[in-house]
Amino acid sequence: FFGDDLDDITPSYVAPSMDELPADISTTRRLKFGYAAEPHVIPSLFRTASTWFESARTGKDVQKIAQRKEAEHMREIYKEFPEFQGREEDGMVLLGRVGAGFTDPALILLPWARVAKGGAAATAVFAGSVAAGETALRDMTLYGETNATNMGLAFGIGSIVGGASDLVVRKLRNKKVDK
Q1: 86 closest CA partner among 36, 13, 37, 35
Q2: Residue range 31-59, pLDDT digits in tens
């Protein structure tokens, strides 16, 4: 399908231009594109493993292989969502990407209730660690390397959201008990 390196991939797949999305694209379509474009954990694990295996087998650069695979993945998505190619992602697309994270089976199956027994701090640390780990996997899958800044931000935001969510749930439970 592709040649031996990224030369066969048009620049729009590697570095898309940042034209704004047309206003006539529905909110539902924007959300669906964001959801489709965001990788889930289990497919990311397989794609990352296959990237490393291909690199070991061929001697090719992991980053180039990861970029090629991401370009192939996005090419398939753009077949279904051609109006998004080369466009800047807006808030609705980002919300679709976030939604993909909330519905990722691998993340749903984590032992959240057991962790919550340790308190809000335990939930915050666990949520931050999951977010940082998922971000590292995503970066490795998409770019062939991890980014410490992305992981740090993910840990911080994940910790805040996880801890705050735990506190809200505890407050709501206590209100039900008081009634």
Answers
A1: 13
A2: 999 999 988 899 999 999 999 999 999 99
Residue 64, Cβ neighbours under 10 Å: how many? 15
The letter for the amino acid at 93 is V
**Contacts by residues 98-105 (CB-CB < 8 Å, ≥ 24 positions apart):** 98/34, 99/31, 99/34, 99/35, 100/34, 100/35, 100/38, 100/40, 101/38, 101/134, 104/40, 104/41, 105/40, 105/42
Average pLDDT over residues 101-111: 86
59: left (phi over 0), alpha (psi -120 to 50) or beta: left
DSSP of 49-81? HHHHHHHHHH---HHHHHHHHHHHHHHHHHHH-
Q: pTM (2 decimals)?
A: 0.69
- pLDDT bin (cut points 50, 70, 90) of residue 88 is confident
81: closest CA among 20, 35, 15?
Answer: 35
Distance separating alpha carbons of residues 147 and 126, to the nearest angstrom: 20
Residue 87 phi, psi (nearest 5): -115, 150
Would you say 62 and 17 are in contact if contact means Cβ atoms under 8 Å apart?
no
What band does 18 get if pLDDT is binned at 50, 70 and 90?
Answer: low
